[in-house]
Each structure stands twice: as structure tokens, then as C-alpha cells.
Design a protein that fits this description.
The chain is an alpha+beta fold. The protein is 23% helix and 32% strand. The chain has four helices and ten strands. The radius of gyration is 16 Å and the shape is globular. The two termini are 31 Å apart.
Length: 193
């Protein structure tokens, strides 16, 4: 599969409007992650023993120009019949305020490289819950990215301790005259020990 054209991707959303880490909107974070993704290296999956889990935040830019954020989970495991690695990316949907607060605390702690303070139910959930989305074989692209094929495909790269993911979205919208080519989901995740 062809890799993303990062020269084109970098032009789609523009530069973040505010300095990194200070009041960025989901659109700003998506623009930041496109630039970080372009500089990131090849994602090398861990040895396939059990299921490895990453957790983080995703920033979505919708075809109508709206944006939003959510929490995401990336799971990888040994492929069927021992062939390669397979995985999935799915959204974590907290069911109440406490779960949302735990998810935000965990994301902040992982970003800072520290442990969350106190008991965190999201960590317990991530270690025990079964995946809802189907697992697909992780494959190389013609460039730096690895990809979880699908509709849409999820492109993965490594940036230090993080996994960066880009899932291109549809560009058309019924209430927008011009297509928004930067529509999609842009995520940064950290491995759960």
C-alpha cells in the first residue's frame, strides 16, 4: 500500500495557531501531529507475546470543518497462524464523569512519562477488556509508515515512546462547498505497561 504523502499532508490543515501544549484546539493538535508524523520513524511492533496495548488521545477534523477529541486504544498481538502482527484502533467511550476524568488523568500521566495518581479504572479496563473492533494484519507501506488496512486505513509511525496514527477521513460534506482534504483522525498513544 502507498504511504501517505507527507509533503501534501503538511499543507492540509495549516500550522497550529497556538504554541504546542497551551490551549490547542483539536484542529491545532491534528496539525501538530501531521508535522510530528512526517518527522517520525518506522513503527516496529513489539515481540508478539500476548496483546500489547497503547492508549492516548485522538483529534478529529470533520469534513464540515468541525473538530473534536476522544480517547483511543491501539492493540497489537501475534497474527493468526503465527504470521506477523495484527491489530486494531478503536475509540474508548467513557460512560460517566469519573471514567472521563480517569482517562484524562491517564493521558496526562503518559504524556508526562509518569504514573497516574491514585487508582485508575481506565488502566484496569485496558488490561482486561476484550477488543470490540476486528483485528487486521499490520502491513508495511511503500514508505516509512506501517498500516492497519481497512476502510479507512490507519497509518502508524513511532516518535520516541509514542505511536502516532493517522486515519484519513472523507473530504466531502453536504454543508461545505469545497472539500476539506485534511479531514481525518490524528492520534498519539503511549504503551500501557
Amino acid at each position: 500500500m502507498d504511504d501517505l504523502d507527507m509533503a501534501v499532508m503538511a499543507t492540509l490543515l495549516g500550522a497550529p495557531m497556538k504554541p504546542a501544549g497551551r490551549g490547542l484546539t483539536p484542529w491545532d493538535n491534528a496539525a501538530r501531529l501531521i508535522r510530528e508524523f512526517a518527522a517520525a520513524g518506522t513503527f516496529t511492533p513489539p515481540p508478539a507475546t500476548g496483546t500489547a496495548t497503547w492508549f492516548g488521545e485522538s483529534f478529529t477534523v470533520h469534513p464540515d470543518g468541525g473538530d473534536g477529541s476522544s480517547f483511543v486504544i491501539l492493540r497489537l498481538r501475534a497474527g493468526s497462524n503465527g504470521n506477523g502482527v495484527e491489530g486494531n484502533l478503536e475509540t474508548l467511550k467513557p460512560e460517566n464523569f469519573d471514567e472521563s476524568a480517569d482517562a484524562m488523568d491517564l493521558a496526562r500521566a503518559l504524556r508526562a512519562g509518569t504514573a497516574p495518581v491514585g487508582e485508575n479504572r481506565v488502566i484496569e479496563f485496558l488490561r482486561s477488556a476484550k477488543a470490540r473492533a476486528a483485528f487486521v494484519a499490520l502491513a508495511p507501506t511503500t514508505g516509512t509508515s506501517m498500516v492497519l488496512p481497512g476502510d479507512p486505513a490507519v497509518f502508524l509511525r513511532a516518535a520516541g515512546e509514542r505511536v502516532l496514527a493517522i486515519e484519513r477521513g472523507p473530504s466531502g460534506s453536504s454543508n461545505r462547498r469545497t472539500p476539506l482534504e485534511g479531514a481525518g483522525r490524528y492520534a498519539e498513544l503511549w504503551r500501557i505497561p
